[in-house]
Amino acid sequence: MANLLNEAEIKNTWAPIISEATGINESSKLAWMSEYCHNHKLYEDATMHMSLDPTMNLRGMGAVSFPSGFGSNPASTGSGDKAPTLLPLAMQVAAQTIALDLVPVIPMAGPMGLLSYLDFVYEGGRLDNEVAPTYIKADKTIAGIVDIAAVAGTNGQYKFVGASRIDGKSIFKVISTDAANANVADDLEAAKTGAGVTVELVKGLEDHIPGFSGKDTNQPFTREEGERTNEKLMGLSLFSKAVEAKTFQVAAAVTREQVQDLKQFGVDAVAQVEAVLVNELTQSINDLIIKNIADLGASNITKATAAGEISSTSMNVELIAASQLNGGKTEGSEHRKILTGILAAANLIANRGRRGAGNFAVVGPQVATALQAVAGYVPNPFANTVSQAAGAIYPVGSIAGVQVYTNPKWKWSNYDVLVGRKGDGNGPGLVFMPYLMAESVQTIAEGTMAPKIAVKSRFALVEAGFHPETQYVKFTVGAKTVNNVSWTNLISLV
């Protein structure tokens, strides 16, 4: 309760400041940004005394005060006394990194941390002792197991239940074991061919087994059966993943002459440089998150294909060129197929991940244009705020409950579509864990007295859960050849 009260107090303190500075009003984003700002402020408070200690200044930094010019105001705080971290700069990076809207964010209090993950498993025992679990899953095919009801192992007997819908592994119900020498891995090893068997517990959500809570036929017990039947156990497993903050860094330098000359026009050269560096960090983080979503989305398709859920190309969308359309079909009706593909991907996420349907899509500029012309599209209001950085991914609207984002860095001819689900951080998927969103250090070159600004961002991007790939799907919009004709551009403007 104390922790909850502390989180509420932190949000009440920081949320108004963040909203005023960035224009952000979305509750969940304000929550994690408030926690981040709180951690960042503690970091600054702990290091401030070092930055204000004259003995800790770099040579030549003394009482320099830019952009006013060297020695223009000896009584003012010099650049050598500037704190090495800047909370407002960090707030800008956090606000402008739109890809953070696609994944849960859990701030880190230090450069090392732990990401805890909870999952439910079919329990009742352990893999390595005489009390065997109720169900087990093996990663290798057991010879002939599909054709017989049970296989006698060296120490026990196991009934084949089916293949995992997530990864295609074999699931077995433990019928009996030799209490004196129980080892389910050895039992299955004796019944298979090929490489060794790896045994694990069966996940309760991803691999739900009908009949676990009742009869094997998935029918409920009668009163008499319920009275004499012991409840089967489900286990709560807590997993912790060690996390280490990694670094993006970029720097820029300006000359004293640039500082002096631009000041005559009311331009702060140092501030302009910092803005460019912030944008560079923002785009780098965006690109990293998008790449990881794409890789996991492709992996989900590969594993779903291996498990027999879909074919390798069944999620792709094929469109017919406008010149080959007939029977009342139009270019607009073809573009609507893209929406159907997005909805199919969103529902596949719900089917395989069992946490909910996909709720966002990332597309290129041409695919975004096609979707914007589809009936039911709701555009995002155009806003010139700090939350929309130049050149970075940005939201363009929503359709059928799916928020659509465009990546302007993709080529016009890029027809990839990424669909994903943003969870709450307690389920599988990517999790972004910022330590210091922006650390800024300004130094003064001893020879030229010109300022150099370096900005770093330290964070971790973590794959959480047993099957993080189930929360993402990647597919492609392609051309279907009709009469040896296929479209070369998705959008026809003439």
Number of strands: 17
Count of discrete alpha- or pi-helical segments spanning 4 or more residues: 9
What's the order of the H and E elements? HHHEEEEEHEHEEHHEHEHEEEEEEE
As a percent range, the share of strand residues is 15-25%
Strand line-up across the major sheet: 9-17-14-10-13-12-11
Account of the 3D structure:
By secondary structure, the protein is α+β, with helices and mostly antiparallel strands. It folds into 2 domains: 1-111 and 245-494; 118-240, no CATH class. The chain is built from 9 helices and 17 strands. The protein has a 7-stranded mixed beta sheet with strand order 9-17-14-10-13-12-11. It has a 5-stranded antiparallel beta sheet with strand order 3-4-5-2-6, with helices on one face. It has a 3-stranded antiparallel beta sheet with strand order 8-16-15. α1 (2-22) packs across α2 (27-51), α2 (27-51) runs antiparallel to α3 and α3 crosses α7 (269-306). The chain is globular and about 90 Å long. The termini are far apart. 34% of the residues are buried.
What are the salient characteristics of this protein?
9 helices; about 500 residues; seven-stranded mixed sheet; five-stranded antiparallel sheet; alpha+beta
